[in-house]
Design brief:
With 294 residues, the chain is α+β, with helices and mostly antiparallel strands. The protein is built from 12 helices and 10 strands. 48% of the residues lie in helices and 15% in strands.
């Protein structure tokens, strides 16, 4: 196990800021990687979509295994910890990876992604099953996306890929919207997305819910209402749960000591992190790590 949790950035050689590979190509690329082990836990700094078209594949994301049967699609968000396994060879499907530069370049995607339920794993399941898609089938869409990505014709290629990806995301978003129990004001989703992004980048410096509300230029009460409506948790509980997941990621995926993890996650003293972790999990960091390693 590595001392640090590998944080993997988008492949700089992918000039289009997007890659579309079938599973055979994806598996071959994974085995060419030397900078980190893709079959061990690592944090990604980009977006990943996996679509299974034949057989089945099990993929691990943040301590949970997702079973992807034929027609299933998994959305892995930026900053999540995941890893591949050898079962990828037994299934057929496609993998899409793209970074924020691709989104920013094709600005018309931005609103859809910012408000998208697909990568909001705190409020929605990351998995879409075939029966949830209704008449829509993502397999056909991603097949055309892969065909365009593989084409030798470079004219307007980036723009065509963006348009095709946008349709795929909107189809998947529609499926999520139909499955939603209650309707949510888009502004609330946008506010939650901004809060989540801010929390991911600043939780080491502050866990104060009022500080985040102030940064967002909204009242604490409104932020609390938004988070409670979307997650069923108060904003304080949501922040505590988020930090707890971060601690778990380090405990399971690195060989950092508990003392080192406490400072990495923004605690002044290791004792404070141990107390915090035990309050939120019922276990000490030492016992949690030991149980997961046995």
């Amino acid at each position: 196990m590595k001392k640090e949790l590998p944080e993997i950035h988008f492949d700089k050689q992918a000039s289009l800021n997007i890659e579309v590979m079938n599973f055979e190509q994806l598996y071959a690329k994974l085995y060419r990687i030397t900078e980190h082990d893709p079959f061990a836990p690592h944090k990604i700094e980009f977006y990943l979509i996996l679509v299974v078209t034949e057989n089945a594949y099990s993929h691990s994301v943040d301590f949970k295994s997702y079973e992807l049967k034929e027609g299933s699609t998994l959305f892995v968000a930026k900053n999540q910890v995941h890893y591949f396994n050898e079962g990828l060879q037994q299934a057929k499907g496609f993998g899409i990876v793209f970074n924020r530069l691709f989104v920013d370049k094709h600005y018309f995607l931005t609103d859809n992604l910012r408000l998208n339920r697909l990568f909001n794993y705190h409020i929605e399941s990351q998995l879409i099953r075939p029966e949830e898609m209704g008449e829509d089938r993502l397999g056909d869409l991603i097949w055309h996306l892969h065909k365009e990505y593989s084409s030798q014709n470079e004219f307007a290629k980036s723009e065509i890929l963006a348009a095709q990806l946008r349709v795929l995301l909107l189809k998947a978003e529609r499926a999520k919207e139909l499955q939603a129990i209650t309707n949510v004001n888009p502004y609330w989703l946008e506010t939650f997305g901004k809060f989540k992004d801010m929390l991911e980048s600043r939780y080491v410096n502050t866990r104060s819910s009022r500080a985040y509300a102030s940064e967002l230029l909204i009242s604490y009460k409104f932020l609390n209402d938004v988070v409670k409506k979307l997650t069923g948790k108060t904003v304080k509980t949501f922040i505590d749960d988020f930090v707890t997941i971060e601690i778990k990621r380090y405990l399971i995926s690195t060989s950092l000591t508990v003392n080192e993890i406490s400072f990495t996650c923004g605690f002044d003293e290791p004792a404070n992190m141990i107390k915090f972790f035990k309050k939120n999990t019922g276990s000490t960091p030492f016992k949690f790590r030991q149980q997961k390693q046995t």
